# Entry
Amino acid sequence: MEAARQAGSAPEAVGGIDLGGTKIEAIVTDTSYRVLGNARHPTPTTGGPADVANAMAAALTEAAKAAGLEPAQLLGVGVGSPGSVDSQAGTVARAENLPGWYASFPLAAALASALGTKVTLGNDVGVATNAEFVLGAGQPYRSLLGVFWGTGVGGGLILDGQPWHGRGGAGEIGHTVIVEDGRHCTCGRRGCLEAYAGRGAMELHARSLHEKGEKTRLFELAKEHGRDRLTSGIWERALEHGDKMATKLIDRAVLALGTGIASAVNLLDIEAVIIGGGLGVRFGEPYRDRIAEAMQPHLFNDSRPPAVHLAGLGDLGGALGAALLVAAK
Amino acid sequence: MEAARQAGSAPEAVGGIDLGGTKIEAIVTDTSYRVLGNARHPTPTTGGPADVANAMAAALTEAAKAAGLEPAQLLGVGVGSPGSVDSQAGTVARAENLPGWYASFPLAAALASALGTKVTLGNDVGVATNAEFVLGAGQPYRSLLGVFWGTGVGGGLILDGQPWHGRGGAGEIGHTVIVEDGRHCTCGRRGCLEAYAGRGAMELHARSLHEKGEKTRLFELAKEHGRDRLTSGIWERALEHGDKMATKLIDRAVLALGTGIASAVNLLDIEAVIIGGGLGVRFGEPYRDRIAEAMQPHLFNDSRPPAVHLAGLGDLGGALGAALLVAAK
# Structure
């Protein structure tokens, strides 16, 4: 805390950490959310929550240094986390893409102790949606649905200018059932949007088709680029090579996204849909167009579709949304 | 207007009209929404909007008389209407279950002139949902989804204590896609919940199966009871007779309702679901249980399902919700 007490001349700044299954993105911004420094560290794949918290603290410390600050000089640090987040208690449980993280872990307290400033937790997709609303492509609207197309398919809602969390678990658009008794989903259920469009589910499906003898360059490409998983970049390269299986699976994903998003629009009649996430950001405008086109046949008010935009903040949306949590306190 | 001016000693009362495809339900209530008088008239099946407006005025006048009042003595009359309702303009367009009602018709002005009091319009399902929230089974909750299982499958939302209309067209849970490229829906699209669960769609499906030689007593029962359509009562009788086709179609409808409602819960995480509508009210508690059970396999947070209740106001919910529009002005 000494650094904070001596920080009379330092600029007012906040920190934001986006905790993903692959990487930890940390930023330090001024109070207008201009990025002053950032750092990206890989997420630990072994150990437990305490190891992940250490890696997060290291990333945030590096981002603060890049901004010429000590973490303890920050007004606070926000965290966007996967799993079941209890903001009030400062805990995260059941973060299934993170190592050994099933039981509830006091992440806010662990980080506050390591960084010497207060820490606020939020849901990763929720804060990324709010970032798009406050700072990104959602700025012109009062109601929107954020769809994060990546390893899974996450969703976030802004209704009448406020984040909507329901009883705490709202936004699970990835688990909209689009085909009753359809494909097995990684959540253990069947026919969910995510089972057709999530990168995780698509990789499992591609592997199963490949093992049955269907040809694809997806796994060779991953090996050539030193990847042990089919990243967004690998899918993009396979499409560029005209790989038939990759094309078929991505085409199917686009249709699934169109169906699931259209059902949400029919229920909520929101003004805008914002497409983000690893695949969403990587594939960009042509896929924004394709998703909007795939929604059209399922829209009840088809003469008045919502605006569909690409996420305006790209990869930094999650960390910016996390930083916004500090001001929200 | 003379009656209104002379009404110093009359009780303060409001009117509500629920305009359905089959019947017009009119009520007059005191300002605590206790019913003082009501009347039910068949909806005209020929003519146009002006004829429907006349029938509505006649029904409301009869309800007022039963309460010992003239329509012009009412503080106002609310109307829950199908179709595309513009509350501000006082118009209704595209009420496809009503005769000759495609173009916009100034229903509020027509009724105000016939009744001598101000008239406020709302969406039929929206006002019925609000009635359950304010006066019915939804009273303990701040967020709920109303599902009206009848000729179609309509939906209404209360979020954080306020009706949610989106850009004016929210609540179309009947057009949640539950089977991509699935059964043809009466809306012209495919695979919608309503295509499996709406009474209109089920009747078309039953007729088509019957014409292909599949046995059912549904159409005989309708004839025996002097019905030209398969009403809720006819479906109930067929189930009581153990009719195989009726059982199969209703079982399929229950599964479809479970799937579509669960997807909405996954997105919104609302506290409660209220089941109403002609079939919902007729089939009652055993089907409330069955729908809740059919939701369960699709709920992402399956350890914490929302409460599922039957509509508490039964058939009068629509008219009570319409009456609530008067106070809301």
Observations:
- The longest strand of chain A covers residues 23-30.
